[in-house]
Amino acid sequence: MAQAASVYPPLEERPLKETICLFDVDGTLTPARGAVTPQMLQLLSAIRHKCAIGFVGGSNLVKQQEQLGTPEILVTTLFDFCFSENGLTAYRLGEQLASQSFIGWLGEDKYKQLVNFCLRYISEIDCPVKRGTFVEFRSGMVNVSPVGRNASVPERKEYQAYDNTHKIREKFIEALKQQFPDFGLTYSIGGQISFDVFPTGWDKTYCLQHIKKEKEISGVDYKTIHFFGDKTDKGGNDYEIFMDERTVGHSVKDPEDTMKQLKEMFGM
Known about the structure:
The protein is α/β, with parallel strands linked by helices. Helices cover 34% and strands 18% of the residues. Helix 1 (38-48) links the parallel strand 1 and strand 2 (52-56).
């Protein structure tokens, strides 16, 4: 862990200064809702001496701190760029950048319509178990979970297997699209138990504007943006940034595969 929090060259002095590696969190750097391994942090630290690194995820910074940081080490010190909620909450070298608000964009009335519909729909879903926190409001999105975000790890796995067969989330999203066709919203399945709802264009590609602004700040022009993610198929929450013409997309199976691909890419 100590190495992960060590001092790094300024962005403009990295050997590969025009390259940045961006990572999804769940299923890419960590197991779903699990903690990062010391081996992963050590590898990321070594790469950070070569080029810039960052993460982009749908969860808020508190959850990402739990997964990627430690009680002693802030996650914002482990990465050059930290993009919570797809970059709507963003940090550069430990300093917070300007943020956006989902409710401010959608409006309270439409937001209430959306949430009320979700809760009614969830009340009629039959799945193995139901726990708490079915709709979680975040700054830049709403996260909807038919089983509830309070589900335990075994319950999450049980629900995921059930969902893979019964397509609960896919059907839910189709119902939302039919109910709110003019709200300008995008729906994206991520992780084991939930999906995100956010304004169209506020997917993970949102964070790229922060990357491109670096040229104005330090003079560094990131011409190569590698993105690593596990939900890169259409409908997955990594799809848009994986396919974006500004990025070089890498699809991974799990954190071990991420490490394997990084070692091959950087000759480590």
